[in-house]
Design brief:
This protein is of the alpha+beta class. It contains four helices and four strands; from the N terminus they run βααββαβα.
């Protein structure tokens, strides 16, 4: 599994629908698309949400990002990530 950081931004319409049920729906959609949610955070600033997820590959992460945008009105920038330890070993 590959780690992806998903940075989300609520659309204006999506702001009115914030709820724990919708959070559960997002997690379920990620699972249905082959992913796992490691953790989720609400943010201040440019992005409203950060999900740390695992997917089998880029295609599954892309599907989840687009699906969440379509169904929940939360638009995600998704970024593949590696640990700093992995990065350090690549650079030495």
């Amino acid at each position: 599994m590959i780690t992806f950081i998903m940075l989300g931004k609520y659309s204006d319409l999506a702001l009115d629908k914030i709820s724990s049920d919708r959070t559960k729906a997002a997690v379920n959609q990620i699972h249905e698309l082959g992913g796992e949610v490691q953790s989720m955070y609400a943010l201040l600033g440019e992005h409203d949400l950060m999900f740390i997820t695992n997917f089998p590959d880029m295609v599954h992460a892309l599907q989840a990002s687009v699906t969440l945008g379509r169904t929940l009105g939360i638009h995600f920038d998704s970024h593949q990530a590696i640990t700093v330890e992995e990065f350090d070993s690549l650079m030495t």
